[in-house]
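TICKET: design request
STATUS: open
ATTACHED STRUCTURE:
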C-alpha cells in the first residue's frame, strides 16, 4: 500500500448491459484515458478485467501504480429483477410474519384489476415470528424469547439458508432485541450472513424497513461472491490499490462495506452518470443540469440543482416496477436508503423495435444487449434496434463505431427494419427507421419531463448534459422538444459515466427517527443525536483510511405537517451546541412544500421525523484539461460528408462530418452536421450550431433568430 499512497492514478470501471467502460485519470494533471469493450453477461468480471488490461496497456501504466479502482455495477439490481437472490429467512415480531405478503394496499395502476403484487423475496414458510415487543417509545413491553432463536438457527442450517434478516417492531428506537437475536444467531449459525434492520435502515415505517433489510440480506451472499471474485482476479493481475464501489446515492464505499450493505449499491451504475453531469456542470458554470445518459440497454435521466444531485429515499426495484425511481408505486420492492432520483427507461441503442398485436410500433423495453446485439453488428441479431435505425438514417458511420473496431452492416439493418417494421406497417424503410427513432425520443422526452416538470422545475432553467454511447445521437432533438437552451456534450461521452466514479467522495449515510413537533423539540437533544451520528461516521471514515482533514459532514432534517404520511428533507446547519432557528426552518419547509406540492399552510404545526447525516471522505477532484485554440481552419477537421435524414427537412440532407479530435477551442459548427469520435457520434440538427469551449466540450445551441 506504500506505493498506492503516493500514486496519482485512478481507474473507474462501469459495467453496463451492452458495454463495459473504463476511464483512467491522472489526478494531478487531469489527463484521461478511455476504453470500451463489450460486456460479458455470463461473467461480468471478465469484461471488468479485459477493459482494465486494455486501458493500462494504452496508458503504459503498471497495475501496481493505481491508487484507487472504483466500480459501478448492476449486479445487485439484476439479481432482484431476475429473481436470483440468495435463500433468505426473515425473523420478525410474533404476529407479523405476513408483513411481506401483505405489503401495501395500493397498486401502480388504479384500475388494473389484474395487477399482481411482486412475489415476496422471502416466502411465507421462511418467515418466523418471535415473541418480543417494544412500544412506540422503544420501551420493552415483552422481553425477547431467546430460546426461540436457536430453534430458527437449526432450521436455517438444515435448509441451507445463506442469509437472515431480522426486523422487530420499533427497533429503530431501541435495537436491543435485534442485537440480542443477532448475537444468538451468530453463535448457532456462524456462517450465515445476518442483517439487522436497526443497522440497515433504522427508520420509522415497519414494512419499508423490513423490505430494505430483506433485500440487503438476500443480496449479501450474491454481492460478496461477485466482489470477492473481482478482487481475487484483480490482485492476480497485479492491482493492489484500494477497491471502491459506487453507491446508489452517488458516493463511494469500500468493497468490505459493500459486502455487508449491498442494498446501498442497488442503483450503483446509473448513479455514476448523474455524478458525471454534476461534475461537468460545476466545471463549465452550469449549476442546474439535467443528466441524460443513453447507453445500449437503457436511458437514464436525473436532475442536478445548485450543483447537487437530487436524492430520494422513496425508491423501489423489481421485475414489475414502473420506470424511474422517484416515489413508491407498489410495483416492486421498496428500499429506504438514499438514492439519486432518476428515471430509467428501456430505450437504449440496443432497444428492439416491434409491432404489437394492434399494429402499433413499439420500441423497447426488450434489448438486444451485448449478445447478439443489434442486427447491424452481424453477430446473429435479427431484430431491428434503435442503432439499426440510426444507421439507416445515415447518422452513424458504418466503419467507425468504437474507432473502427466494431463494423456495422447497413444491409443487415435495412433488412431487419424492412422485414419486421416496414412491411407489416406498409412503410418505406427510411420512414420506418425515422419512426423508430422518434418513438424512442418520445419515451426519453417523457422521462425528462418526469424529473423536471413533474418535480416542479422548469427545464428552460437547466442545461442538458448528454453522454453514453447513444446520448449525443438523440440529445439535440430532445433539447429541441423540451426548449432546453443549451446541450452539453462532454469529450468521450461514451465512457463519461466511468468518469463519475473518479470525481465523487467516499460516503456513509446515517439516520435516526425523532418524531416531535418542531416548536417543542429540544435543540440539545437534536445536537446529541447528530453528535452520535457524527461519531459513527468518523469511525467509518477512519476505518476506510480517510484522514480527519478530509472529512466533512452534512446534516439534514425530515419534516412534515403533523398528520402527513410523507416528509420533505431540508438542510440543518445547527452545530453540536447551537440550536436551530425555528422561524428560518419553518420558512424553508413552507417554501419547499409549496414548490413540490403547489401549496403550503403557514401556521399549521410541523414536526420532525428523521435526522440524517452524511459523512464524506473528500478526495481530490482532477481538473479538466484545456484544449488549445484552433490554429487551423475548420475545414481541416472535416472528414467528408454524407446524406443524413432529418424530420425537419423531411428527407436526407448532405451533412459535413467532423473529427472531434481535430476540433479546437472557439470553433463553431453550423448544423446540420455530424461529429464523430471513438465512442460516440453527435448529431447537430438543422437550426442549431455547436460551439467548442476551452475543454473541448460541444455546446449545442439554437441559431439566433430561429423559432
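STATUS: resolved
RESOLUTION: sequence designed for all positions
ATTACHED SEQUENCE:
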Amino acid at each position: 500500500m506504500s506505493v498506492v499512497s503516493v500514486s496519482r492514478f485512478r481507474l473507474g470501471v462501469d459495467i453496463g448491459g451492452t458495454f463495459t467502460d473504463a476511464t483512467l485519470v491522472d489526478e494531478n494533471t487531469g489527463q484521461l484515458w478511455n476504453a470500451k469493450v463489450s460486456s460479458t453477461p455470463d461473467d461480468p468480471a471478465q469484461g471488468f478485467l479485459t477493459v482494465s488490461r486494455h486501458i493500462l496497456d494504452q496508458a503504459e501504466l503498471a497495475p501496481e501504480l493505481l491508487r484507487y479502482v472504483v466500480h459501478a455495477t448492476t449486479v445487485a439490481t439484476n439479481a432482484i429483477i431476475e429473481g436470483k437472490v440468495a435463500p433468505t429467512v426473515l425473523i420478525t415480531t410474533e404476529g407479523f410474519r405476513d408483513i411481506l405478503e401483505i405489503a401495501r394496499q395500493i397498486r401502480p395502476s388504479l384500475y388494473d384489476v389484474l395487477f399482481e403484487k411482486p412475489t415476496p423475496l422471502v416466502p411465507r414458510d421462511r418467515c418466523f415470528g418471535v415473541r418480543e415487543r417494544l412500544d412506540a417509545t422503544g420501551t420493552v413491553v415483552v422481553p425477547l424469547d431467546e430460546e426461540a432463536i436457536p430453534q430458527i438457527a437449526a432450521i436455517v442450517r438444515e435448509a441451507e439458508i445463506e442469509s437472515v434478516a431480522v426486523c422487530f417492531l420499533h427497533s429503530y428506537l431501541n435495537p436491543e432485541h435485534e442485537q440480542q437475536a443477532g448475537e444468538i444467531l451468530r453463535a448457532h449459525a456462524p456462517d450465515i450472513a445476518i442483517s439487522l434492520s436497526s443497522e440497515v435502515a433504522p427508520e420509522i415505517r415497519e414494512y419499508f424497513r423490513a423490505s430494505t433489510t430483506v433485500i440487503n440480506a438476500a443480496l449479501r451472499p450474491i454481492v460478496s461472491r461477485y466482489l470477492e471474485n473481482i478482487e481475487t482476479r484483480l490482485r492476480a493481475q497485479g492491482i493492489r490499490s484500494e477497491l471502491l464501489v459506487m453507491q446508489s446515492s452517488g458516493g463511494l464505499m469500500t468493497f468490505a462495506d459493500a459486502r455487508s450493505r449491498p442494498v446501498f449499491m442497488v442503483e450503483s451504475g446509473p448513479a455514476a452518470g448523474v455524478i458525471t453531469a454534476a461534475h461537468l456542470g460545476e466545471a463549465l458554470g452550469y449549476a442546474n443540469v439535467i443528466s441524460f445518459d443513453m447507453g445500449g440497454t437503457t436511458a437514464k435521466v436525473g436532475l442536478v440543482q445548485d450543483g447537487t444531485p437530487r436524492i430520494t429515499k422513496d425508491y423501489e426495484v423489481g421485475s414489475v416496477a414502473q420506470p424511474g425511481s422517484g416515489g413508491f408505486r407498489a410495483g416492486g420492492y421498496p428500499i429506504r436508503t438514499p438514492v439519486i432520483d432518476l428515471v430509467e427507461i428501456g430505450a437504449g441503442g440496443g432497444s428492439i423495435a416491434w409491432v404489437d398485436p394492434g399494429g402499433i410500433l413499439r420500441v423497447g423495453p426488450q434489448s438486444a444487449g451485448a449478445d447478439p446485439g443489434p442486427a447491424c453488428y452481424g453477430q446473429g441479431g435479427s431484430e431491428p434496434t434503435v442503432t439499426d435505425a440510426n444507421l439507416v438514417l445515415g447518422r452513424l458511420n458504418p466503419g467507425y463505431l468504437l474507432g473502427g473496431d466494431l463494423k456495422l452492416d447497413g444491409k443487415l439493418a435495412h433488412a431487419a427494419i424492412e422485414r419486421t417494421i416496414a412491411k407489416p406497417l406498409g412503410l418505406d424503410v427510411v420512414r420506418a427507421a425515422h419512426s423508430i427513432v422518434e418513438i424512442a425520443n418520445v419515451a426519453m422526452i417523457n422521462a425528462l419531463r418526469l424529473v423536471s416538470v413533474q418535480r416542479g422545475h422548469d427545464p428552460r432553467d437547466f442545461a442538458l448534459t448528454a453522454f453514453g454511447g447513444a446520448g449525443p445521437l438523440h440529445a439535440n432533438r430532445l433539447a429541441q422538444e423540451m426548449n432546453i437552451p443549451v446541450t452539453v456534450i462532454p469529450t468521450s461521452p461514451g465512457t463519461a459515466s466511468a468518469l463519475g466514479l473518479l470525481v465523487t467522495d467516499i460516503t456513509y449515510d446515517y439516520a435516526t427517527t425523532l418524531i416531535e413537533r418542531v416548536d417543542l423539540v429540544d435543540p440539545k437533544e437534536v445536537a446529541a443525536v447528530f453528535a452520535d451520528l457524527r461519531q459513527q461516521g468518523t469511525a467509518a471514515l477512519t476505518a476506510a483510511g480517510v484522514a480527519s482533514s478530509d472529512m466533512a459532514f452534512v446534516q439534514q432534517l425530515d419534516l412534515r405537517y403533523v398528520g402527513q404520511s410523507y416528509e420533505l428533507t431540508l438542510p440543518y446547519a445547527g452545530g453540536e451546541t447551537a440550536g436551530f432557528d425555528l422561524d428560518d426552518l419553518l420558512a424553508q419547509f413552507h417554501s419547499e412544500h409549496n414548490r413540490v406540492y403547489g401549496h403550503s399552510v403557514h401556521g399549521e404545526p410541523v414536526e420532525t421525523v428523521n435526522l440524517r447525516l452524511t459523512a464524506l471522505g473528500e478526495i481530490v477532484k482532477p481538473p479538466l484539461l484545456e484544449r488549445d485554440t484552433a490554429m487551423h481552419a475548420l475545414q481541416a477537421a472535416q472528414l467528408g460528408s454524407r446524406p443524413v435524414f432529418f424530420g425537419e427537412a423531411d428527407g436526407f440532407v448532405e451533412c459535413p462530418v467532423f473529427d472531434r479530435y481535430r476540433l479546437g477551442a472557439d470553433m463553431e459548427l453550423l448544423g446540420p452536421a455530424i461529429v464523430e469520435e471513438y465512442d460516440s457520434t453527435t448529431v447537430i440538427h438543422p437550426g442549431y450550431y455547436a460551439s467548442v469551449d476551452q475543454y473541448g466540450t460541444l455546446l449545442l445551441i439554437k441559431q439566433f433568430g430561429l423559432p
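CLOSING REMARK: The first helix runs from residue 2 to 6. The two ends are 59 Å apart (CA to CA).
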